[in-house]
Amino acid sequence: MIKSFKIEIDCAVCASKVEDAIKKIDGVNSASVNFISQKMILDLDDSRYDEIMKKIRKTAKKIEPDFEIVE
């Protein structure tokens, strides 16, 4: 499943670090985090969506404490 999210992230370097970390999470097929547009596009394993999103939030918050996903 490919899904787009509006996000809040404070810097381009943090966006890059978050993107790299998210790509390493099991069940994430691809990830793109764009600081300029404040947008994140994810391709996730459909059957584990909630579990993966929980890991994504936790991982991103470790890197950028102000990171938010606006759903």
What does this entry look like structurally?
With 71 residues, the protein is an alpha+beta fold. The chain has one domain: Alpha-Beta Plaits (2-Layer Sandwich), CATH 3.30.70. It is 38% helix and 32% strand. It has two helices and four strands. It has a four-stranded antiparallel sheet. Strand 2 (28-34) and strand 3 (39-44) form a beta hairpin. Helix 1 packs antiparallel against helix 2. It is globular, with a radius of gyration of 11 Å.
Summary of the model, kept short:
The protein has helices spanning 12-23, 49-63, and strands at residues 2-8, 28-34, 39-44, 68-70. With 71 residues, it is α+β, with helices and mostly antiparallel strands. The protein has a 4-stranded antiparallel β-sheet with strand order 2-3-1-4.
Q: What is the CATH topology?
A: Alpha-Beta Plaits
Poorly predicted tracts of residues: none
User: What is the 3D form?
Assistant: globular
What is the count of structural domains?
1
Element order: H for helix, E for strand:
EHEEHE
Instruction: Describe the largest sheet.
Output: 4 strands, antiparallel
Give the strand tally. 4
Q: Decide which structural class fits the backbone.
A: alpha+beta
Mean pLDDT: 96
Distance between the termini: 16 Å
The CATH architecture comes to 2-Layer Sandwich
Classify the helix fraction into a percent range.
25-40%
Radius of gyration: 11 Å
